[in-house]
Amino acid sequence: MYLFDRSTNIGRLELSDQDRFKLLHNMTTQDFNTIQAGEGRSAVLTTALARIIDQVLVYHRGETALLLTHHPQRVRGWLQRHIFFNDKVRLRDVTAELGQLELYGSDATQAAEELASGAKDLKLHQCIEANGFFVAAIYPLQGAGYVVIAPTAQIAELKSQLLSRYQLQESSAEDYDRLRIHAGLPAPDHELTEDYIPLEAGLWDAVSFNKGCYIGQEIIARMESRGKLAKALVKLTAESPIPVGVEITAQVDGESRSVGTVTSGIDNVALGFVKPDVAEPGTQVHIGDVIAEVVDAPLLRTGFTQ
Fold this sequence. Notes:
Layout: E1 2-5, E2 11-16, H1 20-27, E3 40-46, E4 52-60, E5 64-69, H2 72-80, E6 90-93, E7 98-105, H3 108-115, E8 127-130, E9 133-137, E10 144-151, H4 152-165, H5 173-183, H6 217-226, E11 232-238, E12 247-252, E13 255-266, E14 269-274, E15 284-287, E16 290-295
Antiparallel strand pairs: 1-7, 2-5, 2-6, 3-4, 4-5, 7-10, 8-9, 9-10, 11-14, 11-16, 12-13, 12-15, 13-14, 15-16
């Protein structure tokens, strides 16, 4: 099992009062009108040009909502600017009050169940609270995946108990990058940037095509109606290390052409954005002197589905 302390990597915002989900519904790509207590949803905040500000996870905790974000100050400011005089929403940054652990692997379900009975039955993004812990099922980077939220004062003891119980060492940032790249999960400052649009980054589960207007909605709707993307995020493998930030080229109509850029990499595995016509698994591309191949990733979708 992998254990990551993500307390300083992820920010946590609390939204309260009766219009909290109305605000999120109006300001993100996701439908929050139908969310129920105990549910969570992935969503994206976008610019007027539908570029990614941040991907967030939002959980319905009954009287409040918990929002996990890579950029707490920016996201809080963005949301706050769109709260008007009659809106009943309160935003509070609880990053310092609450810590965050993430568990992945074969023993993750057992560990989560020991912390909060019923965690083993959670489906993706569902959450449960027990014994002072908030536990939710998150993207399974390897095996099962869970996020555990607890008061900051309890995080050190909780880590110690889990590490001792499962005979582990705390996993590193490099370990996390390796897991998320192999799984095909985009990350801030790599794939989650204003260079890209949510559908290009494979964030299909974070976009509702049946809701009303939000900032950037027209461009995303046009992409859906045309059934075509300008680029798509793919996973790449090679027999040697893949350099990051390097141009990707491929044979197109008998000529070597630029088709994209590598955005993340570790060892011989990478993520990068390419033109859709070279996004199919099995396609060979060149990255500098390295020959790489597009391969499947468990969390990555590159095409339109119904």
